Amino acid sequence: MNSAPAFNLARPVLWLALALIAIHVLRQGADENSDTWILLAFSFIPARYGEIGPLLPGGEAARFWTPATYAFLHADTLHLVVNLIWMASFGGALARRFGAVRFLLLSLVAAIAGAALHYLFHAGEEAIMIGASGAVSGMMAATARFAFAPGGPLSGRTADPAAYRVAAEPLSAIFTRSRALGFILVWFAVNLVFGLGGGLLAGVSGPIAWEAHIGGFVAGLLLFPWLDPVPPDHSAGNLTRTLLKSANADARQREAQMTVARIINEKGRDVVTIGPGASLAEVAALLSEKRIGAVVVIDKGELLGILSERDIVRGLARHGAEVLNKLASDCMTSRVVTCRPEDTINDVMQKMTTGRFRHLPVIENGALAGLVSIGDIVKRRIEEVEREAEQIREYIATA
Question: Is 324 a residue whose pLDDT tops 90?
């Protein structure tokens, strides 16, 4: 039976880890003078680029190699182990995607970028800087460019070999991924805390070179697309727009299917009616009792008109309180605009907007079949907008 090995590092990571360990063991076995010479010749020292540069081991030539070689030296075993753990965790995914050459090239550039930013903050200082943290930070940043993408090794799904070959998203897109954004924010916060707090970490001798971390991290973010061997998925950039268009098309189709018949079937077909001989006082009492805005005036099953709150208010404005003694037939709107069960919401909204009224009787086979109000239309439109928003959120969340 085949089983996965318990210790399964990507080969480039394993080679690099063995090199770091071998150099550290070599230094541990060297005498104090030899170890001091190694430190001064291969560590990054900002003051090396000043007058004392030629006086240090390695001379002026060391100005060219130390921005990279400092990454192979560590202050103590704990310093080395911490970097190895982070490199195994994040460098492995990157190495499987990049291969040895690209992986080592990105690590080299990240180390140099870390040294450059450290120099900007400490130009002229004689304190040495050592450690692979700048290079490892670059690995972490480059891994974040693809690992949190859908199907990537850190996307929350079970990783398989294909997870390391998913098409990377644009830099702006990773800031929309909660996992990726959280990782980047926490990473920067921790390093800024080190910087503002003096750069000291319990258990590690000497200050933490947080500037080198940030320089390497930024380099990894920016350099990734230039070294990434996986072709970008050009359709991925248009995925969200495609899904939004699909959602809008679905919404338009649902709008076409949302008819007056569906509304009156859902709300009920009962209509409050009144005879033409009822007084406006009776109509007002009925509107208040039923908590509605209009009644339909019918006589022997024939639609004569519609009487709304607005009609009563207009009558009060013209005739005062005496209008309450008038008949419904005196104040109703007799030229009634109606709709049919097969009309859509958009059709009804257009009629209401054009006619500036809020109620439409529904006529089916020549008979009164229901009544729709502006409230019914608005309610359905709000429900539709909420469905569209939820669908778009689901599309984006699964994109």
Answer: no
Kindly give, in sequence order, each residue whose CB lies less than 8 Å from that of residue 271, ignoring residues fewer than 6 positions away.
296, 361, 368, 370, 371
d(CA 352, CA 361): 12
The token duo for 130 is 């050592």
Helices 100-122 and 133-147 sit at what angle, rounded to 10 degrees?
Answer: 120
Domains of the chain as residue ranges with CATH = 11-233 (1.20.1540.10), 256-383 (3.10.580.10)
- What's the 3-state SS for the chain? CCCCCCCCCCHHHHHHHHHHHHHHHHHHHCCHHHHHHHHHHHCECHHHHCCCHHHCCCHHHHHHHHHHHHHHCCCCHHHHHHHHHHHHHHHHHHHHHHCHHHHHHHHHHHHHHHHHHHHHHHCCCCCCECCCHHHHHHHHHHHHHHHCCCCCCCCCCCCCHHHHHCCCCCHHHHCCCHHHHHHHHHHHHHHHHHHHCCCCCCCCCCCCCHHHHHHHHHHHHHHHHHHCCCCCCCCHHHHHHHHHHHHHHHHHHHHHHCEHHHHHHHHCCCCCEECCCCEHHHHHHHHHHHCCCEEEEEECCEEEEEEEHHHHHHHHHHHHHHHHHCEHHHHCECCCCCECCCCEHHHHHHHHHHHCCCEEEEEECCEEEEEEEHHHHHHHHHHHHHHHHHHHHHHHHCC
Average confidence score pLDDT of the chain: 83
What pLDDT, on the 0 to 100 scale, is given for residue 166? 80
Task: Please tell me which residue, 24 or 241, carries the higher pLDDT value.
Answer: 24
Q: Residue 397: is its pLDDT beyond 80?
A: no
Rounded CA separation 198/75 (Å):
18
255-268 pLDDT, tens per residue? 666 888 888 888 88
